[in-house]
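Recap for those who missed Tuesday's class. We walked through two folding examples back to back. For each one, the amino acid string is listed first and its predicted structure tokens come directly after. Nothing is annotated here on purpose, so try labeling regions yourself before you check the end of the notes.
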Amino acid sequence: MHSTVQVSETSTRHWVIGDVHGCLLALDELLELLPPGDHLIFCGDVVGRGPDIQTTAERVWGLVSSGRATWLRGNHEQRLIDAQAARLEGEDDTPCKTNPCNTKQWIARLRTLPVVFQGDGWVATHAGFDQDWQPDLEIREPFWRTYDGRFGRVVVAHTPGDDVRYQGQIVIIDTGAVYGGQLTAFCPETEAVVQVNGLSNLTGSTAADATQTEAEQIKPVLVSSGPC
């Protein structure tokens, strides 16, 4: 069953953070820039692809355990859960074999991750909602085209681009840190954006170029500042 976190009435601001994908150095730099009393929401795909997968996962889980952060489930977290289920059924377990965080403890942690964070007039989820308005961790354009505003503003990650993008009431904050772009935090209450550089881009490609790669990826691997 999918779970939703509801925010209680508070003056605390929130920062929704795009796909980290194991980019530990960028994450640590971003954390230094965000107000320590504000709540962090990792918008899924903390795991996968990057160079410091396990340490990044441990760092974020520590923030969750301390109460400072909420970690939402992304498609990469879901694929790891599914891969373990397949392994237990004797099917292909390649993602689990190559994963540094494939222990029963980690899979149990990933299973607890909610899929939606509900704020005051806004929600955050990894990718969007399907035609029945249920969270969908893989969706892109169909949600962007059909969203009718029923949840207020929706902050999503999942689709890398060169900067934060607005599609009506949808805000897309994955700026491709693992592809040489930036790691972004977005504050729904103020619309402030804080960004740090991601991995060095040695190929000359942009974060937007990574969208097709993301869509084709089938095997997961776990695990400029704006106004504040």
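Example two. Treat it independently of the first, because the proteins are unrelated.
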Amino acid sequence: MEENKSARPEESPAEVGEAAAAKAYRKKHIVREYAESILIAALLALVIRTFVVQAFKIPSGSMEDTLAVGDHILVNKFIYGTRIPFTDKKFLAIRDPRRGDVIVFEYPEDPSKDFIKRVVGTPGDEVEVRNKKVYINGEPYENPHEVHKEKEVVPREQNPRDNFGPIKVPENSLFVMGDNRDRSYDSRFWGYVTYEKIKGLAFIKYWSWDRENWRVRWRSIGKTID
């Protein structure tokens, strides 16, 4: 004797259409949620990069031994004022640049390039270099991060590396130098950095890769930049 089996009712064309529409709606809803999440994340990243903090990689040895080639650093974008997009104007500055700050800025001779140097002279300062020694307003400027890797003193007539000035730093401008004094292309050669060209204050290393020895510089990661 055969058991009675309950027959499954067939779905009407209308029900099939409603199910397909509901499935399509759910798929579109998921796609829209992902798109919105990606857009919000992209906008947030853009805002952070523009107004808060930006990452840079050190490509040269002009700031050795403070910064090595392959160091990856974060730069505070708002401490000297937030730049209004597509202009050189800034607002809401916390403070002005100070002597000793390590800053990232647009290279005056080619704004498409970013340079990083240490502030040596601020507006109104008289800066002079005599036989590799820096003088600010007639007094020796002691920088514990300064290094010299070449003993030769270059005469003033040859180039301004070891003998320069004196000059007076103009308003809204900075005189900057690399810590690796003998191998830095800086204000001694191309002049001043104006305030509107400053991108921010370098403050920490978040990654460091030694390409020559193919290794991570673990001790550099998380180290603040003095």
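Answers for example two:
The chain is about 20% helix and 30% strand.
Helices lie at 13-52, 187-190.
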